[in-house]
C-alpha cells in the first residue's frame, strides 16, 4: 500500500496543501518549523488516531479554524481507497471511506503506517505508558476490533476507580461495596484479553527486533523484551521492578485466574488509595540489551537504535499480516542522529518497503538511495518537488 495523494485543510500550519505521492522514497526537506513533520504526522494519524508529538487533537487544528481535514488516497495494485478524517474543535471527530461515513476507529483497518521520530527515544527511556501505547497502537493496526476492547476497558476502569474513590471518601469497607464485584468481572474479562494480546505481540516481535537491530548496528547486543505484569506483582511505580520482577506469565494459572487473585489481594490497598492497582493499564515491558535493562544501561546511540529497531520490527509484522501490501514507512528527522555507516545500513534495511517517507532539515544527511524524489517545504507551502540534480543535493538541502 502507498499514499497516492495527500490533502490537508487547516491542519497545523497548512491552510491548504495538495501533494501527489507514489511508491518508493520521498524526502521532505526544509528548515525546522516549516511543516515537514506535519505532513507525515497527518499520515500517521490516520493509522493510529493519535499524534506522535501531542496527546490531544486541538493542536492539530490551524489557529482560527474550527476543524482540520486530512484526506489520503490509498493505492494497492489497481484498488484505491479515499480515507478522510475531520478533527473538530467542538463535538466528535468524523470519518469517511470513499465518501461514506464510518466510525473514526475504523480508519486503522485501512490505513497502515509505521512512523519513527526523535520522540521515540522515550520508548526506551520514558515511562511505562509510552511502551504500552506503542504496543497498543500496533495491536489495533493488526487487529482493529481491539480498539473497541481498549475503549471498553478504559470505561470500566474509570467507573471502578470512581467507585473506589467514593468508598475511600466515605470510609466504606470492602463488604459494603457489592457493586465492586460486578466491575471486577468486567475488568477481568476485558483486561485479560488485552494482556494476552500484548504477550503474544511481544513474543512475535522478538525475532524481527533482533534482525532489525542487527541490520542497523551490525552487532549482536541481544536485544530482547520481557513483560512486566501487575497481576503477577510487578509495580510500575517501583524502579526496582524493572530488574527484580521475575514472575513468569502463566506461572500460577491462566491470565484470568491470576487477575482475579491479584484484585482480591490488592483490594485493601485499592480502597486505601482509591485506584485500581492491577491490570493492563499498569503493565510494562522491559527492553533488554545484553541482558540488562536498556533504560538504565544503554548509551544514547544504543537507545536510539533500539527504538528504531522496534519500529522496523513493527513494520515487518504489519507487512506479514497485511493483504494490502506494506505499511507506509515514515522516518521523521532520523538521519541527523546517525553516523554515516548507520545511515547507509538503515537505507539498505528499508529498501524493500513499497513507500518510504523521510523528513530532513539537510538533504546531505539522507543516503542517496532515498533521494529519488525531493519535496521542499517552506512555511507551510510546498514550493518545489522533483529529483535532485547530480552534485546539487547538499545545496538543495540548505535553501
From TrEMBL:
Signal peptide: none annotated. SUPFAM superfamilies: P-loop containing nucleoside triphosphate hydrolases (SSF52540). Keywords: ATP-binding, Cytoplasm, DNA damage, DNA repair, DNA replication, DNA-binding, Nucleotide-binding, SOS response. It holds the Pfam family SMC_N. One of its GO terms (molecular function) is single-stranded DNA binding. It is found in: Cytoplasm. This is DNA replication and repair protein RecF. The lineage of its organism: Bacteria, Bacillati, Actinomycetota, Actinomycetes, Micrococcales.
Amino acid at each position: 500500500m502507498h499514499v497516492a495523494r495527500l490533502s490537508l485543510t487547516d491542519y497545523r500550519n497548512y491552510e491548504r496543501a495538495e501533494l501527489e505521492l507514489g511508491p518508493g522514497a520521498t524526502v521532505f526537506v526544509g528548515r525546522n518549523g516549516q511543516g515537514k513533520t506535519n505532513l507525515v504526522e497527518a499520515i500517521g494519524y490516520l493509522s493510529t488516531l493519535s499524534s506522535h508529538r501531542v496527546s490531544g487533537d486541538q493542536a492539530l487544528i490551524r489557529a482560527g479554524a474550527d476543524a482540520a481535514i486530512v484526506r489520503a488516497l490509498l493505492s494497492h495494485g489497481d484498488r484505491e481507497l479515499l480515507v478522510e478524517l475531520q478533527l473538530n474543535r467542538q463535538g466528535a471527530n468524523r470519518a469517511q471511506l470513499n465518501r461514506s461515513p464510518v466510525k473514526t476507529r475504523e480508519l486503522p483497518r485501512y490505513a497502515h503506517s509505521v512512523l519513527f521520530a526523535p520522540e521515540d527515544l522515550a520508548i526506551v527511556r520514558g515511562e511505562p505508558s509510552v511502551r504500552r501505547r506503542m504496543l497498543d497502537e500496533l495491536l489495533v493496526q493488526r487487529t482493529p476490533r481491539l480498539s473497541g476492547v481498549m475503549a471498553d476497558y478504559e470505561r470500566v476502569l474509570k467507573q471502578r476507580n470512581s467507585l473506589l474513590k467514593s468508598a475511600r471518601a466515605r470510609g466504606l469497607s470492602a463488604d459494603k461495596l457489592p457493586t465492586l464485584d460486578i466491575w471486577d468481572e468486567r475488568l477481568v474479562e476485558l483486561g485479560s484479553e488485552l494482556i494476552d494480546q500484548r504477550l503474544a505481540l511481544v513474543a512475535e516481535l522478538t525475532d524481527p527486533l533482533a534482525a532489525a537491530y542487527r541490520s542497523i548496528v551490525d552487532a549482536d547486543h541481544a536485544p530482547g523484551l520481557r513483560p512486566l505484569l501487575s497481576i503477577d506483582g510487578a509495580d510500575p511505580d517501583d524502579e526496582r521492578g524493572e530488574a527484580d520482577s521475575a514472575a513468569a506469565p502463566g506461572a500460577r494459572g491462566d491470565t484470568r485466574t491470576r487477575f482475579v487473585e491479584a484484585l482480591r489481594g490488592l483490594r485493601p490497598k485499592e480502597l486505601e488509595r482509591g485506584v485500581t492497582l492491577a491490570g493492563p493499564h499498569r503493565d510494562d515491558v522491559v527492553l533488554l540489551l545484553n541482558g540488562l535493562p536498556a533504560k538504565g544501561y544503554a548509551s544514547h546511540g544504543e537507545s536510539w537504535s533500539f527504538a528504531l529497531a522496534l519500529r522496523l520490527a513493527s513494520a515487518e509484522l504489519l507487512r506479514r499480516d497485511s493483504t494490502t501490501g506494506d505499511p507506509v514507512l515514515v522516518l521523521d528527522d532520523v538521519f541527523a542522529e546517525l553516523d554515516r555507516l548507520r545511515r547507509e545500513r538503515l537505507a539498505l534495511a528499508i529498501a524493500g518497503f513499497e513507500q518510504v517517507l523521510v523528513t530532513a532539515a539537510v538533504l546531505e544527511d539522507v543516503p542517496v538511495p532515498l533521494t529519488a524524489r525531493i519535496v521542499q517545504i517552506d512555511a507551510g507551502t510546498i514550493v518545489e518537488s522533483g529529483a535532485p540534480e547530480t552534485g546539487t543535493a547538499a545545496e538543495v538541502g540548505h535553501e
